[in-house]
Design goal:
It is built from 6 helices and 17 strands. With 292 residues, the chain is α+β, with helices and mostly antiparallel strands. The chain folds into 2 domains: 2-101, 2-Layer Sandwich (Phosphorylase Kinase, domain 1), CATH 3.30.200; 103-260, 2-Layer Sandwich (D-amino Acid Aminotransferase, Chain A, domain 1). The strands form 4 sheets. Strands 8, 9, 12, 13, 14, 15, 16 and 17 form an 8-stranded antiparallel β-sheet that branches. Strands 1-2-3-7-6 form a 5-stranded antiparallel β-sheet.
Length: 292
């Protein structure tokens, strides 16, 4: 599917739900498409310019956290790309050239608020990914402190699975696990602190890491509406679902039409596409202070 977007004639080594990775020899080219996924399925309808928003916001954050954690960016500026890529105007403002890393096959999730699958689990057992929480929390409650809840990164279209920290220790070892947890929490604290100053709550986020020259660095995308749950602070109200500046609007629509999450994903109606686009642009502009 994605290989036709922009007709990029390069070795495609990974086609993700949203991003495609091409081999440039000494580095990778990561391209953010306009696809959108929900419940681990790619939706057949694209969200126009979504890839550009993801790219620009990721580049903003990589720059913002540079002093906290090194990352894989070589360049995200099309004008700095090698000549061989300049014929693909499609790549402008939606692609980055990055270092080749040895990826850690874990999704590092940090939760500062009780939402999504975390809320569903808490209702049953007062835990989130096996971590015991205090009694009396409500949907969207702020947690006493941010918690680290990893999930396995499954290839081949399988659903990622929440795992315990103990399980993570078995899979990637103690030093790596503790470094992932420590750095994920540091990054969340830095970005959530900044976000709230912009009127946005960062409820939770997903980060990915890899090793480059034996050093753990930040990879993939960071703190975008695809990988994070953003809420407007001025509208926040504990005890109910929040109006999210992310793809929650798409998830809510799919729940509303009672899609079974196993048959092929349905097309999205025009109003859902437009509303989702609005939310992505709103998140970008509020967080960066820049016009899209």
């Amino acid at each position: 599917m994605s290989n036709r977007e922009g007709n990029i004639d390069l070795p495609l080594i990974h086609e993700g739900k949203v991003r495609d990775v091409y081999d440039l020899g000494q580095s990778y080219l990561i391209v953010a498409s306009d696809r959108i996924s929900a419940f681990d399925y790619v939706i057949p309808t694209i969200i126009p310019d979504k890839g550009k928003i993801l790219h620009k916001l990721s580049m903003f954050w990589f720059d913002f956290v540079q002093g906290t954690m090194p990352n894989h960016i070589i360049t995200g500026s099309f004008d700095s790309f090698p000549t061989m890529l300049k014929k693909y105007e499609y790549l402008r403002d939606r692609s980055m050239i990055v270092k080749k890393t040895n990826r850690v096959d874990m999704e590092c999730i940090v939760r500062g608020y009780l939402a999504g699958s975390g809320w569903q689990e808490y209702k049953k057992s007062q835990t989130v990914c096996g971590i015991k929480l205090s009694e009396g929390l409500k949907e969207s409650s702020k947690l006493p402190g941010a918690i680290f809840t990893p999930s396995s990164k499954e290839e081949g279209g399988k659903h990622d699975e929440n795992i315990s920290f103990e399980e993570m220790l078995k899979r990637v070892g103690q030093d790596t696990s503790e470094s992932l947890r420590r750095n994920s929490l540091r990054l969340y604290e830095k970005v959530s602190g900044y976000s709230i100053s912009r009127g946005i709550i960062l409820a939770d986020t997903k980060l990915e890491f890899g090793f480059y020259d034996s050093q753990l660095i930040l990879i993939d995308e960071i703190f975008t509406p695809d990988s994070s749950r953003f809420w407007e602070a001025g509208k926040y109200e504990e005890g109910k679902p929040q109006d999210s500046l992310d793809k929650q609007y798409v998830r809510d629509y799919l729940e509303h039409i009672k899609w079974d999450k196993s048959s092929p994903a349905p097309e999205l109606p025009k109003d859902v596409v437009e509303k989702t686009m609005e939310k992505y642009i709103d998140a970008y502009e509020k967080l960066t202070g820049r016009k899209f």
